[in-house]
Every structure is written in C-alpha cells, then in structure tokens.
Design brief:
There is one protein chain. By secondary structure, the protein is an alpha/beta fold. The chain has three helices and nine strands; from the N terminus they run βαβαβββαββββ. Helix 1 crosses helix 2. The longest helix is centred in the N-terminal third of the chain and has 18 residues. It binds inosinic acid (IMP) and magnesium ion. Magnesium ion binds next to loops.
Length: 178
C-alpha cells in the first residue's frame, strides 16, 4: 500500500449519509438528549461530525469532547496496548456517555475507552462505530450502534487512514496492494 495507490470504493458517501441518519435516530431513541459524546481521535472525526449534526435534527443537545488514543502493534492490524495521547477535559461522572469510533476490530481500543469512562463514574456508556469487522475480536466487546459490517479488509476514507493518508476521502474504500 502507498499514499498514491488506487482506492476502490466500498461504501459510497450517499450510503454513509443514509446510514448515519438511521444511526442518529436509533441513538436518539435510546439515550437522553443531554448525552455526553466522546469521540476517539483521530479516526472518528469525520463520522462524529456528521453524526452529531444528524443527532441535532432529532433534538439531541450533547456535550462533545475528544480523546486521542494510540494502540501499539502491527501496522494494518490493531493490537497490543492502548495509551492515552490526549485525554478529555470534561467530566463524565454521572453522565450518559456515547463513545464514537471509526471501526471496531480487535476491540482493544473501545474496551480501553469504555473501561476508563466507567471507572470515572459515568452513569451509562454506549458505543457507536461506523464500521465493524467481525471475526477479528481479541476482546469480547460489541458496539451498541453499528453502521456497516465489512469483510476483513483494510479500508480507508471518511476519517480512516493508512499511514495518516486518505482520511479526506468522502467514501470508504479499499486500498489496492501496489
Ligand atoms: P481495535 O482496537 O483493533 O478495535 O482497533 C480499532 C482501531 O484500529 C480503529 O480505531 C482504527 O484506527 C484502526 N483500524 C482497524 N482497522 C482499520 C482499517 O481497516 N483501516 C484503518 N484503520 C483501521
Ligand atoms: Mg482509530
């Protein structure tokens, strides 16, 4: 893979937009309007930006913060330990929290984030991910709201990167092996 490789579209911008709207409706139905949103950077920034605006149309008035997590492991499969590079500055104590991430793969990142927020006294913690790769879980964890289940392939775009490239693509695609 390289930054100049061809990217084959897998999920179009239109399909993402429709699904994000559906997810916002489902989230608004099961969480209170004053929920606190914690987006995991960097991968979730595009999804989070669209999802919060879709949530606005349902009457949700969330507070929003971000946390930058880094997992150490192989390059195109996530694994190993998770570290906080930048923490949230809001308190989650007593709050109904929605964690937003781009993709659930091994489950380590989201398990780490969920445990942290539970330990800090959140009233409830839910998880929304745009993508999920089944059969890759190293830790037993499920998302409460999932956009698309995809096959076991490395995808980029809509915030997801390869070597920090491709995040700007408005669709999800597969990078051709060069
Ligand atoms: P997990 O801890 O294995 O669930 O890791 C999830 C993280 O790995 C995501 O937040 C992404 O940053 C990264 N990741 C996993 N699969 C992909 C992929 O196909 N493309 C880009 N990033 C991915
Ligand atoms: Mg990520």
């Amino acid at each position: 893979m390289s930054k100049n490789a061809r990217v084959t579209p897998l999920i179009s911008a239109d399909d993402i937009a429709r699904r994000v709207n559906d997810m916002a409706n489902a989230i608004a139905d099961s969480l209170p309007p004053d929920m606190m949103i914690v987006g995991l950077l960097r991968g979730s920034f595009v999804f989070a930006a669209d999802l919060i605006r879709a949530l606005h149309r349902t009457g949700v008035k969330p507070q929003i913060d971000f946390m930058t997590l880094a997992s150490y492991g192989e390059r195109t499969t996530s694994g190993g330990n998770v570290a906080i590079n930048r923490d949230i500055s809001e308190s989650v104590a007593g709050r109904d929290v929605l964690i937003i991430d781009d993709i659930l793969e091994s489950g380590r990142t989201l398990t780490f984030a969920r445990n942290l927020i539970v330990e800090r006294g959140a009233k409830s913690v839910r998880i929304a991910v745009l993508l999920e790769k089944p059969g890759k879980r190293a830790v037993a964890i499920d998302a409460d709201f999932t956009g698309f289940v995809i096959a076991d392939q490395f995808v980029v775009g809509y915030g997801l990167d390869y070597a920090n490239y491709y995040r700007e693509l408005p669709f999800i695609g597969v990078v051709e092996a060069a």
